[in-house]
Design a protein that fits this description.
By secondary structure, the chain is an all-beta fold. The chain has strands spanning 4-7, 10-13, 18-24, 33-39, 46-51, 55-57, 65-70, 75-80, 89-96, 110-111, 115-120. 0% of the residues lie in helices and 49% in strands. Strands 2, 4, 5, 6, 9, 10 and 11 form a 7-stranded mixed sheet that branches. Strands 1-3-8-7 form a 4-stranded antiparallel sheet, with no helix packed on it.
């Protein structure tokens, strides 16, 4: 069993930056694909980024967001720059015991509770 705890959300002005963190339990964190998703009310959960040994991004965030992982700390990060109002959402961290890029929310086994990101115009 893996438990994920996100932190770092908040309110920021457009053009600003935030860094989200996701701390994971478990001894084999380095073998897990980690993903970030986001969701707004009434819409499906949307893929943002994933990382195995390499990162992969949704087109909507490419060049603005950076996903990274620190296996020694069992933590994955999402650095969000040049934030836009349309980035406003609850951001979720997800994990799967695989080293394959996964972009669908149903492909992940473990989820955090989510952290709210609000970007004001």
């Amino acid at each position: 069993q893996v438990q994920l705890v996100e932190s770092g959300g908040g309110l920021v002005q457009a053009g600003g930056s935030l860094r989200l963190s996701c701390a994971a339990s478990g001894r084999t964190f380095s073998n897990y694909a980690m993903g970030w998703f986001r969701q707004v009310p009434g819409k499906e959960r949307e893929f943002v980024a994933t990382i195995t040994w390499m990162p992969y991004y949704a087109d909507s965030v490419k060049g603005r967001f950076t996903i990274s992982r620190d296996n020694a700390k069992n933590t994955v990060y999402l650095l969000m720059n040049s934030l836009k109002p349309e980035d406003t959402a609850v951001y979720y961290c997800a994990a799967k015991d695989t080293m394959v890029f996964l972009t669908g929310p149903r492909e992940y086994d473990y989820w955090g509770q989510g952290t709210q990101v609000t970007v004001s115009s």
